[in-house]
Amino acid sequence: MKSQLIGFLMNFWISFSLALYFHSGEREEKCIIEDIPTDTLVIGNYKVQRWDIHKQEFLESAPGLGMFVTVTTPSAEVLLSKLYGPQGTFSFTSHLSGEHIICLESNSTRFVSFGGSKLRIHLDIRVGEHFLDESVVQAKDKVNEVNIRLEHLIEQVHHISKEQDYEREREEKFRKTSEETNSNILWWAIVQTLILISIGIWQIKSLRDFFISKKLV
User: Fold this and answer.
1) GOLD domain: which residues (predicted)?
2) Residue 153, number of CB atoms within 10 A of its CB
3) 168-208, pLDDT tens digit by residue?
4) Which of 66, 69, 119, 160 is most buried by a 10 A CB count?
């Protein structure tokens, strides 16, 4: 019963996951932007499918095709740059909070070329998730299994807490930006009002001088 309860809680506190697929040409770079807190583990799984012009469908695999993965931090530092196979897993840990750019570019081998054929890339990105080795868990007795799952659950709670701190930090930064913007708008409105008043006074004075010169008053 305890293990079922913990399993339910783990599913409830699951980390953020982004699963999608997109189309790309050979050697064409595609990038996505992930807003990631600091000191957060990110794991990405991908799979490449090649379009078969004869079958008019995407094949299950694309042998001979590599995938070059590049991860850039908000400070423009290259955090990961590595060539993988047609299907694989990459991971990195963020050192700065902010928008990280994850780019994937297909790269055929010297012996295989697909002539610019269309590719479908399946991508699953998990932020802040530490996977449990189920084989290790099953090998332990029930008490150890509960302890392992509890430790994993605590890690998830820590990640959620870190995510909330990051959101509060972003909210505070947005609030300061909004206040500065409102302050600038207020001062600009005051400056515009002073300019309009000055122009009005100048026009009144000009008209008065004109009427006096014409001896109309």
Assistant:
1) 29-127
2) 16
3) 888 888 888 888 898 889 899 999 999 999 999 999 888 88
4) 119
